[in-house]
Amino acid sequence: MNDRNDGFLSRRESPNTIKSCESYSGSLASAARLAFSSREMLHRVESFGLTGNWGWTFATGALVWSPGVHRLLGLELGTVRPSGEAFLAAVHPGDRDAVARAFAAMREGILSDQRFRLIPRDGAERTLLGHSETYHAPDGRPIGAAGLVIDITDRERIGLARTVERRRRRSLFRETGAYFAHIPMNPFDPYPPELLELTGRRLEEFHDDWLCAIPAEEHGYWKGPLLQSWADVRPFTYLYTQILGNGDRVRYRGTFAPILDATGTIDAWAGFTGPERMPIGPAGGVLAEGLESAVAGWHLRAARALLDWSMMDFAKASGLSFSTIRRLEENIETAAAHSRRMAIAALRRAGIRFTLMDGSTIAVART
In the prediction, which pLDDT does 14 show? Predict the structure, then answer.
């Protein structure tokens, strides 16, 4: 008998050994497919132009950039040899020293995530987040590093815009006593921080008596018609008297619009509350969308009549089809909310104003 281990199974090897080998081979094949899939996924992610990865061998100084890094730097593949100097040249001057220090620390095995600005060749400043890992020899010496860079510009811009908007609203409240509110329905919370500050009352006081900052002579209105407005799925506006923290009584106007979920159920209310004497400009964001949801087909027809437009004129001005305009004017539910916004925007450009009057009445006028 041939008992040699020459790469073939001997007769002394059991069926279990054969199954074990087959299982091992299958595992290798699965691992190979997984590795290929991972590379393909990485290529797909990088194709969006928001990420890139790199590798660095300390002994030779050789750097490798993925196509994604080249795209982030605004470079064509093969036009620039990957190097620390080439990368730093694209870093914003204000962040260049910090990134250079991070590169130097990598060689010592010290890692930290870095947020820095980049100015690629197209001149459009971007904000990147870098994450890296260091690889070590058996004796513990750092021998190389690899990392990932992610373009977080849009996230940074959104964060900055939100900060600016919060400051703007805070300034508006300090100067005028007017404020925006987001009132969720689950759990229902109709007491924004500005209301507590304006009235000088604690949240517990409102929980004990929700009309504690409203004159007694207006309680009937709040418990009747106004309470019904909150129950309807329609925007509404109302006038009332607000008792301020110093005891003054000031006439206020509140304007609220529902925010609906995918099933058409009210998820929250968006509102703006301010002194009656305060001129209110055009609403924006979810409040505007909520108010526009109350514009019905007869409002669109009335607006079109004020402009002396035919339905075809309306379609051309809005960029919508004739059939979509017809569905909007006939209040057919298949008309999309996006189409309604486009139609209303076209009417506003032509000088039409939709104004929410007391209650839920919408007036249509031409300026």
Answer: 43
Look at residues 56, 240, 57, 74 and name the one whose alpha carbon lies nearest to residue 65.
56
The residue written with tokens 């298949």 in the block is 334
CATH class of 35-151: alpha beta
- The rounded mean pLDDT for the chain is 79
Q: Which residues are paired to 114 by β-bridges? A: 130
**pLDDT value, residue 180:** 86
- The second-level CATH assignment, the architecture, of 295-367 is Orthogonal Bundle (1.10)
Q: What is the CA radius of gyration of the chain?
A: 32
Instruction: Kindly report, residue by residue over 228-260, the tens digit of the pLDDT.
Output: 888 777 888 889 999 999 999 999 998 888 887
User: Is the Cβ–Cβ distance between 357 and 363 less than 8 Å?
Assistant: yes
DSSP state of 264: S
- 0.90 surpassed by pTM: no
CB contact at 8 A, 143 and 137: yes
* Boundaries of every domain in the chain: 35-151, 295-367
